[in-house]
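Consortium newsletter contribution from the modelling node. Members have asked for a concrete example of what our holo predictions look like. Here is one, prepared for the S-adenosyl-L-homocysteine complex that several groups have been discussing at recent meetings.
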Amino acid sequence: MKQAVDTVQQVVGYYNATKNDYRVLWRRGMHFGYYDRQNRTHTAAVLNMNRKLADLVQIVDHDWVLDAGCGIGGSSLWLAANRGCQTTGISIVPQQIAQAKLSTKRLGLQKLAHFLVADYAKTHLKSRSFTVVWALESILHAEDRQAVLKEAFRLLKPGGRLVIVEYVLEREATTPSERAELDRWLTGWAMPSLLTEKQYKSLVAKAGFVDFAAYDWTEHVQPSFDRLAKLVRLFNTLAPLLKMLGFTNKWRMGNLTASEAQLSLLAKNFWRYKVLVAKKS
Ligand code: SAH
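And here is the predicted structure:
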């Protein structure tokens, strides 16, 4: 239990320390985006990811989506505005929820989009109240994924869909240098662990879900990784100056080394960007 509390504090610390970086560099959503011929800019790709996922699990106006780990509410607001469904976005970072609520008002979506501070492993929300649980680059912060999956199962109505987007390991780290690199990535981004597809499949089944399927979307996210690589190079060049001006902190520097490790491990095909879906029968 203590460990779970520590993880939550780590995540809150990470997002509080890096919120301006996300605001400036990531904007409309805190995920990598889906690039294709029609969506070549970062902002377009970030919005397009919502569209691609919503199409994949066929979200329509009579759905009620739990956006588990909603960041500043980008996906919830997109779904409410573009699919006309009800959404509930939760995050353990109060500042994100406050920002999401402000955006909801600004967009006039109060009837559809709702936000609250809650832990996706223990939401205290009513059982069987959602038709979709949506976790976009979010449950990689979970201390105990099994607990999150169990909670998702409880919250879904029969027939409900689960959609998870994650960095999925192709294999376990074997050499000490691989382990060190993975560790730098996990620590810097406040992620307790990453799993292989096989491990995920078994956890999802254990939680009671059926019809597990996995899709590899790395190719469509690659431009965003290339963009991150450029930002890392720029930040590295400016680091001495930023340090001098007091613009760096533990989490920011960790974020940087983590990003380097992430990119290096991707180049080694150590992990892939995947979408995992399943159903409550
Ligand atoms: N899905 C959003 C945000 C991704 S960032 C988007 O794509 O824009 C990861 C999110 O997960 C952050 O909002 C973080 O606060 C949230 N998170 C991490 N641990 C959590 C927990 N235990 N319960 C709820 N949210 C959590």
